[in-house]
Design goal:
Elements lengths: L15 H7 L7 E5 L5 E5 L19 H12 L3
Antiparallel strand pairs: 1-2
Length: 78
């Protein structure tokens, strides 16, 4: 189990192992979420622009209208 100490200014330095696991760098933002069971979850706040190019779509290029048509069609199957 990893630990961190809270400073007198309420600051916490996350352990190096956590920073590496989350792949966060100085200046990145993280979010804290409190679950119903009282556990606190730390999440990396992702800039949506960083996701560009992560998925290979091959030669598929859809317009917004075409995407909306597919969404409506597939939503009707639920």
């Amino acid at each position: 189990m990893l630990e961190a100490k809270i400073s007198v200014r309420s600051e916490v330095t996350l352990p190096k192992e956590i920073l590496e696991y989350m792949r966060v760098q100085p200046g990145d933002r993280i979010k804290f979420r409190v679950r119903k069971d009282g556990a606190v979850v730390i999440e990396q706040k992702i800039d949506i622009r960083s996701l560009k190019g992560m998925v290979d779509t091959g030669d598929i290029h859809l317009s917004v209208e075409e995407m909306n048509e597919v969404i409506e069609k597939e939503a009707g199957k639920l």
